[in-house]
Amino acid sequence: GGDRVQGLKQVEKASAEGTLFPAVAKMMLVDIYSQYEGRGTEAAKLAEQLHQQYPTNDELTFSLAGIIGGPLIEDRARAAEVYAGLIERRRSDKTTEGAKSYYNAVLALAQLKRDEWRVEDAIATLTPIIDSKVTTPDWVMPQYLLRRASYRTTLNDPAAEDDAKRVANDPQMAGSKAAAENLIKQIAERRTSGEATTMAALIPGNRLT
After folding, report:
1. Separation of CA 138 from chain center
2. Angle at CA of residue 200, ends 196 and 201, nearest 5°
3. What is the DSSP string of 106-151?
4. For 34-38, 183-187, 189-193, 202-206, which range has the lowest pLDDT when averaged over its residues?
5. What CA–CA distance (Å, rounded) separates 144 from 165?
6. pLDDT tens digits for 72-121?
7. How far apart are the first and last CA of the chain?
8. What is the DSSP letter of 35?
9. What is the CA radius of gyration of the chain?
10. Could you tell me the pTM of the whole model?
């Protein structure tokens, strides 16, 4: 309605004129354009500007990568560059916030590859961190193992559920036990129905790069 249009114009004016907190206004516009208006090009342009202005702000980095790698733009190569930059910057950061950003960026990069049907590459992105047996943050191992199990399921890997079983059987990952057991059940159902075989057969023809 009119109130929404007027509100958007006010935010756009604050962003353009820079009278008060222009960066905050730009952040608001990025969310509005990308989530409610479907204006991906404009959202990406503003997100790029904010990323250049605040290159060490992880929230802005994730926002930019999510927009340009998502359905509005689908420039996954550029999104991968953005995630890779964050990963490199946070690689040796042992702070709570730094580690959170680092491991989430690796997950996001793996998902980008999965979205391009580069499933083996997605798995290879996760495996070094799984092999390092990360203990802090404590969510990393269960999340990475379950994600890898899901990717391996896409390939119809006979051992796809091994990662999920590892989570389900480890008392240190008890918080993810239900999710792991649910995934094990889903894998079995997909095998029984033939869906796993069908999905794996689609990968070569759909792989984007």
Report:
1. 19
2. 120
3. HHHHHHHHHHTT-HHHHHHHHHHHHHTT--SSTTHHHHHHHHHHHH
4. 202-206
5. 13
6. 999 999 999 999 999 999 999 999 999 999 999 999 999 999 999 999 99
7. 43
8. I
9. 20
10. 0.86
* C-alpha of 158 from chain center: 26
Burial group, residue 118, by CB count within 10 angstroms (0-12, 13-18, 19+): buried
Report the alpha-carbon distance of residue 199 to residue 155 in Å, rounded.
Answer: 7
3-state secondary structure 56-113: CCHHHHHHHHHHHHCCCCCCHHHHHHHHHHHHHHHCCCCCHHHHHHHHHHHHHHHHHH
Please name the amino acid found at residue 140. V
Closest CA to 69 of 79, 59, 54, 60: 79
